Amino acid sequence: MYKVLIADDEVLDLEGMRLFIPWAELGLEVVAAVNNGFDAYEVLKDGKIDILVTDVHMPSMSGLELARKAQETEACSDLRVIFVSGYQDFHYVKQALSLRAYSYVLKPMDDAELVEALVHVIKELNEASRRQEEERQWKEAARRAPHRHAPLPESASVEQGKHTKLIQEMIIYMKEHLHRSLTLKEVADRFAFSPNYLGLMFKEEMGVGFSEFVIAMRMEKAGELLKDPKVKIYEVADQVGYRYMPYFSRQFKETFGMTPNEFRRQR
After folding, report:
1. Domain end point (choices 109, 143, 170)
2. Which residue, 103, 100, 160, is CA-closest to 128?
3. HSE-up of 2 (CA within 13 Å, CB side)?
4. N or C of the chain: less Cβ packing under 10 Å?
5. Helical (H) or strand (E) element with 80
């Protein structure tokens, strides 16, 4: 369940949100409900909160200040913020938008409006989790590459890179075209970059070169396909882009330490 923190200095509004929003049904858990920005910030610093629902106008530390401080805290880098306010002042809305607010709900609040905002944030979080899982799988594939290929470092993260969206789109494209010859020039043409520049960007983000990553992806998929005894080994090779069986077998053995036949017999 995603973790939620609620902050509102108006007790009735705070309790209303805590009690009348169907948090559990949404797959959410309210970790804390506090009535000031300072207490909220102390909770946020632990880095275990996914969604902050905060009133904009609170004494001492406003919701805007709270969100700004949270954004400057490394532990809160992935925090999603929903602002709630009775102040129908464009000045507040503008500041909220500048802080990358996911929604701005006005008081008196319609529960359905807050629920709609939460559903939107949950969808964003789910998509981010899915991308992280795909990245984890690609990293695992890269680590299984031959020793002569550089392993993907633990610290590498597509999510935090400068070219996040581009690299993710590249990996999706590569995954969809593993069944045929796949060159850096082709991918560079597809994304309108020069091969040299795109290759440098890819290695900077992923910690391994384009070719190493493609080989790791091919071998990972080959290993999965070989688990199905109905699929012939030559069909596996063809589906992961190898037309010459001896080369496929040699590459597979360098990766897994055994031939495709030996690999299949162990399953």
Report:
1. 109
2. 160
3. 24
4. C
5. strand 80-85
Which SS3 state, helix, strand or coil, does residue 1 take? Answer: coil
**How does pLDDT run across 61-120, given as a tens digit for each residue?**
888 889 888 888 877 878 899 988 876 655 666 666 666 666 778 887 788 889 998 998
The model's pLDDT over 124-160, given as tens digits with 9 standing for 90+, comes to: 888 877 777 766 666 665 555 444 443 443 334 444 5
Please spell the DSSP secondary structure of 48-60, one letter per residue: --SEEEEES--SS
Q: Are residues 238 and 144 in the same domain?
A: yes
Residue at 82: amino acid letter: I
Number of domains composing the chain: 2
Is residue 180 helix, strand or coil?
coil
Residues near 169 by beta carbon (within 8 Å), at least 6 away in sequence: 191
Kindly report which listed range (56-65, 79-88, 186-195) carries the lowest average pLDDT score.
79-88
Element (DSSP H or E) covering residue 6: strand 2-7
Please give the structure tokens belonging to residue 96: 């909220």
Residue pair 141/178 in contact by the 8 Å Cβ criterion:
no
